[in-house]
Automatic annotation (TrEMBL):
Protein family: Belongs to the acetyltransferase family. RimJ subfamily.
Residue ranges occupied by any N-acetyltransferase domain in the UniProt entry: 18-192
Protein species of origin: Propioniciclava coleopterorum
Cross-referenced SUPFAM superfamilies: Acyl-CoA N-acyltransferases (Nat)
One cellular component (GO) term of this entry: cytoplasm
InterPro entries xref list: Acyl_CoA_acyltransferase (IPR016181), GNAT_dom (IPR000182), N-acetyltransferase (IPR051531)
PROSITE patterns (alphabetical): GNAT
Annotated keywords: Acyltransferase, Transferase
Domain of life: Bacteria
Full protein name: GNAT family N-acetyltransferase
GO molecular function, one term: protein-N-terminal-alanine acetyltransferase activity
Length: 206
């Protein structure tokens, strides 16, 4: 089924120094560099494929192409997160994806994210998630956004706490992460729980 709003990909969003835009194929080298530099930071929370999976892996360019296909169809919102230092150009520092988007009687999606450790602690991910969720609620007219977080991932837990996501309990063996089926804490927000100021309005003033 089609999105409910005037969704046209590519979509770029900005709030202060934090931006969301589509990932670019020409960023392949830098993307692999930033992922390698952050391997120990992100590996405990990275989704992995179980041994029984038969899906073929994608190259970076295939991944970007698939992202754009899914985004144009409204099945996902796959964004690069950018950060702009005063006087500089925006720099890729992470990703935010709202995936598994379903319409019909459900109208929900699940958000996932990561950020370069070098810029952690600057309110980048909460801002990115607020931007993305506000777009999903306001333009795609989704009813529900979920976030699944490993109980040990205290940094990610702070993100949903800052934005007022509602805890919904533990889902055992919910997702294959770092080589095993792992339990996840679930958090969610419904559209009617967000005021006219949006999630962006829940962030502290810069």
């Amino acid at each position: 089924m089609k999105p409910g709003g005037a969704h046209r990909w590519p979509v770029s969003l900005q709030h202060g120094p934090v931006g969301l835009r589509p990932l670019r194929a020409r960023e392949e080298t830098y993307w692999y560099e930033i992922r390698a530099r952050n391997a120990s930071w992100t590996r405990p929370w990275d989704a992995t494929r179980p041994d029984e999976s038969t899906e073929a892996g994608l190259t970076f360019r295939q991944l970007v192409r698939q992202f754009n296909v899914d985004a144009r169809a409204g099945r996902a919102l796959p964004w690069a997160i950018t950060w702009t230092e005063p006087g500089d150009e925006p720099v890729l520092v992470g990703q935010l994806t709202i995936s598994g988007i379903t319409y019909g009687s459900a109208r929900w999606g699940m958000a996932g994210y990561w950020v370069d450790r070098a810029v952690a602690g600057r309110n980048i991910v909460p801002t990115a998630l607020a931007l993305g969720a506000d777009y999903a609620f306001g333009v795609l007219k989704l009813h529900r956004i979920e976030v699944a977080i490993r109980p040990e991932n205290v940094n990610s837990l702070r993100v949903v706490q800052k934005l007022g996501f509602r805890p919904e309990g533990m889902r055992p063996a919910f997702m294959h992460v770092n080589g095993e089926w792992r339990d996840h804490l679930m958090f969610a927000l419904h559209a009617e729980e967000v005021g006219p100021e949006g999630l962006i309005g829940r962030l502290p003033a810069r």
